[in-house]
From TrEMBL:
InterPro entries listed in its UniProt record: Hexapep, Hexapep_transf_CS, LbH_SAT, Ser_AcTrfase_N, Ser_AcTrfase_N_sf, Ser_O-AcTrfase, Serine_acetyltransferase, Trimer_LpxA-like_sf
SMART domains in the record: SATase_N (SM00971)
Gene name, Swiss-Prot/TrEMBL: cysE
Enzyme Commission number, as recorded: 2.3.1.30
Domain Serine acetyltransferase N-terminal residue range list: 14-118
Protein name per UniProt: Serine acetyltransferase
GO cellular component terms, A-Z: cytoplasm
GO biological process: cysteine biosynthetic process from serine
Entry-linked Pfam families: Hexapep, SATase_N
Enzyme class, first EC level, given as a word: transferase
Family membership: Belongs to the transferase hexapeptide repeat family.
Record keywords: Acyltransferase, Amino-acid biosynthesis, Repeat, Transferase
Length: 268
């Protein structure tokens, strides 16, 4: 399998673009040459580079970089969906974040992207029965990035978490494809009950900064949650909700609010 991936690497346009951008960084900022080579240019595939970043960022006195690297390499080799999701998330960030104009930036500098990729390895551990290791990864991601995603939560592809400070996503939460959220979002429970207790977010939803979505409720596809809102009830498809508690205040404003990233209640 590694040999096949190595042969296919030249045909991976996402990875090739990252490497081209890294080579430009080396030319423009020679002091970062070692960083670019160690993290990107030294690796044959994007999966190997992501495994290296995972281990580098999450290693500590408690667990070595080598052990974490072996775990991540095994995850990417066993589940092709991890690499597919990593590419979809990367394209999502580059397309939706106006501060991002290179694929290299999320991989190297954006903690939201890096935290989501680390969660994906933790989720793989959880689903393969290695739950204590998955919880350890969750702890380290929270400590390093300020992003706390339970490894049992289910996240789709094309996820963009902008700024990504103080994100909390609970154990039974489900997040669909092409969802965008900003910092300080909580997808949480509403008490001490166990079982299925966290929100289900549909495809294409846009969640504003500081929004709290609580309980086993459904947020319909292509809807918007305004910044600072507290959502306690189901949200229909293609609607905008705002307030504390949140109420429907209008239509979503466009077909795919998570892609447009327009948070205004009354677009001009």
């Amino acid at each position: 399998m590694p040999e096949i991936k190595a042969r296919l690497a030249p045909f991976d346009p996402v990875w090739q673009r990252i490497c081209t951008e890294a080579q430009q960084v080396v030319q423009d900022e020679p002091l970062l040459g070692g960083v670019m080579h160690n993290n990107l240019l030294h690796h044959a595939t994007m999966e190997r580079a992501l495994a290296y970043r995972f281990a580098l960022k999450l290693s500590s006195a408690e667990i070595s970089e080598q052990i974490l690297r072996e775990i991540a390499d095994e995850a990417y080799a066993s589940a092709a969906s991890l690499g597919e999701a990593a590419r979809a998330d990367l394209v999502a960030v580059e397309e939706r974040d106006p501060a991002c104009n290179r694929f290299l930036q999320p991989v190297m500098y954006f903690k939201g992207y890096q935290a989501v990729q680390a969660y994906r390895v933790g989720h793989w551990l959880w689903t393969t029965g290695r739950r204590d290791m998955a919880l350890f990864v969750q702890m380290r991601v929270s400590e390093m990035f300020g992003v706390d995603i339970h490894p049992a939560a289910k996240l789709g592809k094309g996820i963009m978490i902008d700024h990504a400070h103080s994100i909390v996503i609970g154990e039974t939460a489900v997040v669909g494809d092409n969802v965008s959220m900003l910092h300080s979002v909580t997808l949480g429970g509403t008490g001490k009950e166990d079982g299925d207790r966290h929100p289900k977010i549909g495809d294409g939803v846009l969640i504003g900064a500081g929004a709290k979505v609580l309980g086993n409720i459904h947020v319909g596809a292509n809807s918007r949650i305004a910044a600072g809102s507290v959502v306690l009830n189901d949200v229909p498809r293609c609607k905008t909700v705002a307030g504390v508690p949140a109420k429907i205040v209008g239509e979503a404003g466009c077909n795919q609010p998570a892609l447009s990233m327009d948070h205004r209640l009354s677009p001009e």
